[in-house]
Amino acid sequence: MPEFETDSNLVQEYKYGFVTDIESDTIPKGLNEEVVAIISAKKKEPVWMLEWRLKAFRRWKKMKSPTWAYIDCPEIDFQDIHYYSAPKEPVNLADMDPELLKTFERLGIPMGEKDAMSGVAMDVVFDSVSVGTTHKEMLEELGIIFCSISEAIQEHPDLVKQYLGTVVPPGDNFYAALNSAVFTDGSFCYIPKGVTCPVELSTYFRINAADTGQFERTLIICDDNATCSYLEGCTAPARDTNQLHAAVVEIVALENSEVKYSTVQNWYAGDENGIGGIYNFVTKRGHCRGRRSKISWTQVEVGAAITWKYPSCVLEGDGSVGEFYSVAFTNNHMQADTGTKMIHVGKNTSSTIISKGISAGQSSNNYRGLVKVVEGATNARNHSICDSLLIGRDCSANTFPYIESEDDSAHLAHEATTSTISEDQLFYLKSRGLSEEDAASMVVKGFCKDVFKKLPLEFSVEAIKLLEIKLEGSIG
Amino acid sequence: MPTLNLPLTETPSLLGGFDETLLEHSRKGEHALLQAKRTAAYESYASIPNPDRFHEEYRRQDPELFKISTFSPLDIPESTSYVAAPEDEKYDLIISVSPKGIAINDKNKVCADGKLVVMTLDQAAREHTTVLEQSLGAAMVPEEQRKFLDLNGAFWNVGFFIYAKKGLELANGILIRYHNDKADSILLPRLVVAAESLARFAIAEQFTSPNGVRTLCISGRELLLDAAADVKLVSLQDWGDEGIHIGEDWARVKRDAKVNLFSMTVGGKVSKMTVGCDVCEPNANAYLGGMFFADRNQHFDQKTLQYHSSPDTYSNMLYKGAVKDKGYSVYQGIIRALKNCVGVDSYQTNNNLVLDPTARADSIPGLIIDADELACSHGATFGNIDQEQLYYLRTRGISEAEARRMLVMGFFDEVIERIPFENMQDHLHDVITRKFGV
Description:
heterodimer, A: ten-stranded mixed β-sheet, B: 438 residues, alpha/beta, 2 domains
């Protein structure tokens, strides 16, 4: 019988754990109305935005941190966080701080226009600000707005006013309220009617400064008959203190539109003893507002010390479709409580959930999901598959699906399995000359295949590599 | 014995009346063992906060729905003359409980050779003190705080001890019949089953009351199975339309033993059933079967726990539910595999039929797994009757109502046919027919 023990000495060093030494403009620690006002002022926001933030802040003060997730999270001192940090020199793509440029090179992000990847338009958020967006002109020609949310608040206030907070209201939950009060940057995408976005829109989030929280806010609007694909990547330096990342992502899909949202989340996960790492408390929700609209979430979660994240779809438009594909890998002392919500409101709506959890080391990996069919949502269809793979004796994998059916025409099916890599599979592969580690890695990749094939091609290749690196040392 | 009226506080709280005064009343004149057990249960009961609708388990069934403080506990006389019922033919031994009293009828003299002991807890406390001391309250699963189970432990007003010695086998089984026709009364039955190794028997429990009579039942049952024992327990909750039922069934299953727990919920207005089993030694096996069919305004809540505290243990669960009219059913289940419990094989299935747009069914299966090298799965489905099947039956000249009834019957038969008592299977088929008004 093979023993799958995690050898902590072999755990791959976190490649993105370096710190960039640049001068930052950081406001003092603490959180009060003044801090909210400072953030708003730094962003040169109009008064209505400040009022919106303050309202959210007052709401947040009355709320309590949620405790229902199956995670063991130390209490967070919200006064001990810098809520704003930005590179001091104003940055633009033409003359970017060479130190910063070097950072992006090390991260593998092409920022200079000349060597920009042709297929991807990139927005980069460094701590609290967006430092540059590529491919702007080409997108502008098509009428696509792709910029940082701060820029959008100033330049497209009507669109922002119309959609911001309509999918995730400021008082939705504790971390959404906090985010609404102090969000610093994030992306804004608007795809006008009938436009198919020719490139992948992508945002890269990087936390650099110590003791800061990153509060990103992303808003994607796909107008009638429009299509877009959006990618998100995240990394942070390796530090021995925990940092908070509380993001809100809102997607609005109007009639006949299609949005595909992919994430590769590789925040620093802490060391093998569970010291340090990012707390990733994220609210992501899509709203299929129009008929026959479609929102598809694909996520590969391999980082963060604690993840608390449920990308959801509200299927309001008749015939709308929601999809959720997820691979969540936890190792060492990582904890993940992640899943999705599919809320069927319109008629003839359908949703698919495929969630694959892999736990190794002493980690805990939970799937928590809701499928709800409200009364009158006739002919709703859902199929959910939640599989967990356990590697090692000390990890745990839990599944908590919630299914609520209020309509007699709904067809819902949920399946979940929890198992380890079977001896038969390993034996077969080993008899073909593969080492045990390669064999196990192959089984794991096969286990995740349903999800990886949903990612855009470049990301898919990267995600497989990433998983391989993460698996190294966990098996064999 | 005079009926005790609960001293209701001015603003009745959820569990108004279940206090030390009532505890003293329950303990009065009892054997020291039972008194001690009641006190221990009461201490635990008092330490658990009252459930409220913000608690995850009660989010879908507000405990206020039980209206507990509007009822008062029954005082059941020790014995009464036995009233026969037609189904008695099918059993070896019949216990009947009603507000008039308790009667144990050992029809086939199965207790005569001393291998089987069936008696009230009071008598058992005197005659089988040691075994009862080890059994009463012993099947509870740790980690879980069960308010209503402890409430039953402290305040039970009718209790039985079934003790099967090594190798006992019963041909027909035991029937426990509860009938409550006293309005606004609470029945708190306690059942303790201890099966020594290789004992093999089945128990059926049946709860009935007349329609229109408000009754409340908070039942607590525990089963302890020693090596290679095989016990089947079927509980048929068929209260009248004003019945409220709270049930807690817990089993602990040792090496090579096998337990079958059936929980059939069809009657009453509000019902909350919790069934849990701890398969605690290698090769222990548990099967949990459940049926719930809520129509009119019935609100049924089922909770299961498959607790694997040992490696190489097995459990299988199948709960089938249907909701009709404004019926609402909730299923919540957990498979729990503790650390190092490898070789566990466990399955959990919940199938639901939602028959009307106004009905609602929720399902929350769950897996909490802290070991590898095991296989734990669950599946849950929702749907209405298959239109093609309906069409097929219609083409054979069967009316739509009849065809629907047949299909629902077929749906439930997967559970019903595993019940070891034929008369109970027939009863359940009748209930399904009744619910369809055919």
